[in-house]
Write a structure and sequence with these properties.
With about 500 residues, this protein is of the alpha/beta class. Helix content is about 40%, strand content about 10%. It contains 18 helices and twelve strands. The strands form two sheets. Strands 9-6-3-2-1-12-11-10 form an eight-stranded parallel sheet. It has a four-stranded antiparallel sheet with strand order 5-4-7-8, with no helix packed on it. The chain is globular and about 70 Å long.
């Protein structure tokens, strides 16, 4: 029997999209410590019921959260040094030294590029890894591995933790320790979010990287040849983002092997995501129904074949194991009636993107066409910021934007699309933080099909000066459109 309502749609609300790396942490990157707590406080002040992030697994090539080296582990750089200090694992001096290292290395990189504040994964690693080693030594000497808390964590996560340690060639327990600390700090983050009345929305990429602990630990679940190389790889054909298509390069799944295991790997994967988050977006949901196969070794994604996929079986197994599925289907791209039917069979909301609404008259992306069971975005992490989007529109699109939203939309397109999103019938509206701030091209998070230079946008030094004004405007709009939190959480911690 199917669920009556998706838990994500239980009330009319809105959320803000900002990856945890984009926050204003002290070590060249945002993390799960004070910067995340402050952002949750801001979300509550702004009346936002959701904070949406990108995937939080260990980043892969190009520091991409969508090319993670594990579907189960967390990115160690999101561990807060302040949190380790509070737990007595590192000294205040170590925290200060890490901050200086990050500021020096990050500052050099910014000066070389002439850029504003950016997330810098390389600087963060250089700053944090010595502190992690110090914390590990204290933890080990204090026999932390024998504590009931750690043993409970290791038992709960044993299905992937040992494989992750083997993948890292870790015989001393260092990487298991980092995952334990990530888990502890994440639980604190979840608790603070609950206190502020803000729910967390995560993201699960449908495919995994060849160079990942997932493939190394369970190669039989992937379509590999005798040398361990993909027989075919993932991607999408030419589209509005790329004339050559997008060549992602992940291996495809060996579905008969998953079927023999009762889709246990998928159930575990979705299960850990739903423990960390109150809801999860499935990236490239169409891949549950049909996936694009490209010949291994191809240089572009121009040539490939769409093949059917057993998504209905996967979701049925997950619902049987996990219960109600608090999932959003990223159903953009090659959507067919069969994809829509699959989404609706499991009561999953789809996505609407307002930046796609002005290509023709009476577009299906305009709000009056939005169903209740959908999530409306001004744009996603793959899109231009709305200010940048305005600057690249054709004359006809600008005329439609002005006609629908009024003349002020040309001057302040981000504010216009935010108002459209909030007024939409869609039960959930999500706005990228860049659009909240009205930022342009330099604030874009990702350009699909481009391997380098992405994922670095970060809140700048002007955030402190504008955040309360932004919160006030969003809260007023949310109240006017019925999207405020059930608990009106104005109290600041």
């Amino acid at each position: 029997m199917t669920q009556r309502i998706n838990p994500i749609l239980d009330r009319r609300a809105y959320g803000v999209l900002a990856h945890i790396s984009s926050l204003d942490g002290d070590c060249a990157i945002g993390d799960a410590g004070p910067s995340a707590m402050r952002f949750l406080d801001w979300c509550a002040e702004a009346g936002a019921g959701w904070w949406q992030m990108l995937p939080v697994g260990p980043v892969g090539a190009g520091d991409s959260p969508y090319s993670s080296t594990s579907s189960f582990a967390g990115e160690p750089l999101f561990i807060s040094l302040e949190g380790l200090h509070e737990d007595g694992l590192i000294s205040a001096r170590t925290v200060r030294e890490a901050r200086r290292t990050a500021a020096h290395l990050g500052g050099q990189a910014l000066k070389a590029r002439g850029a504003r504040a950016r997330s810098n994964f390389e600087a963060a690693r250089a700053a944090k890894e010595p502190a992690f080693l110090e914390a590990f030594e204290v933890f080990r000497l204090e026999r932390g591995f024998e504590s009931s808390e750690y043993r409970s964590f290791a038992r709960r996560e044993r299905s992937w933790l040992d494989g992750w340690s083997r993948y890292q060639r870790d015989t001393g327990g260092f990487h298991a320790f980092l995952q334990f600390q990530f888990d502890r700090q994440w639980e604190r983050l979840r608790a603070h979010a609950a206190r502020r009345g803000v729910r967390l929305l995560g993201d699960v990429p449908i495919f995994v990287s060849l160079d990942s602990a997932d493939v190394a630990s369970e190669p039989a679940l992937f379509r590999l040849d005798s040398r361990g190389q993909p027989q075919v790889v993932t991607g999408v054909p030419p589209d509005c983002f790329s004339a050559d298509g997008q060549l992602w390069g992940h291996p495809h799944y060996r579905w008969d092997a998953h079927r023999r295991q009762g889709f246990d790997w998928w159930c575990r994967r979705l299960g850990i995501a739903l423990r960390r988050f109150d809801g999860v977006r499935i990236d490239h949901f169409v891949g549950f129904h049909h996936a694009y196969e490209i010949r291994a070794g191809a240089r572009t994604a121009r040539r490939g074949l769409w093949r059917p996929q057993p998504g209905r079986e996967v979701l049925t197994a997950a619902r049987r194991k996990l219960g109600s599925l608090a999932l959003i289907a990223e159903d953009l791209g090659a959507v067919t009636p069969e994809v829509v039917a699959l989404r609706k069979a499991f009561q999953l909301p789809g996505m609407k993107v307002l930046q796609n609404a002005f290509g023709g008259n009476d577009s299906g992306e305009l709000p009056h066409h939005h169903p209740l069971d959908s999530v409306v975005y001004t744009g996603t992490h793959d899109n231009e910021t709305t200010v940048q989007w305005r600057d690249s529109r054709s004359a006809d699109e600008l005329v439609r934007l002005r006609t629908v939203c009024g003349p002020e939309a040309l001057r302040d397109p981000a504010a216009a699309l935010i108002r459209m999103a909030f007024a939409s019938p869609a039960q959930l509206a999500v706005v990228p933080l860049q659009d909240v701030l009205g930022l342009g091209a330099k604030a874009r998070m990702n350009v699909p099909g481009i391997a380098l230079g992405n994922w670095t946008w970060r809140i700048g030094s002007d955030w402190a000066a504008v955040r309360h004004g932004c919160a006030k405007r969003l809260r007023a709009l949310a109240q006017a459109t019925g999207r405020t939190q059930v608990a009106d959480s104005r109290r600041r911690t």
